[in-house]
Amino acid sequence: MIGVKMDRDDMLLYITGFGKSNMAQKMNEYAGEKMIGYIPAETQYQLFRASDNYPFYTEFDVPAQTVSTFDFENFSILSPTR
CA-to-CA distance for 72 and 44, rounded, in angstroms? Predict the structure, then answer.
């Protein structure tokens, strides 16, 4: 889910289910910088739970996380033109 750059300086991307694995930590380690982070909107809107991969997590306790740049703030809402 990479599209519009996040309007943030502290990270480039975030993952759903941030605390469910060490994926963000490992990606940051390999990148040599804080590339992946956490945004509160991920928890607020339960994006990890909303994924079609969530039943796999509940059954096998293996997270299927999504890397994303959509942070609910990075593009303006367009007004209707009519």
Answer: 11
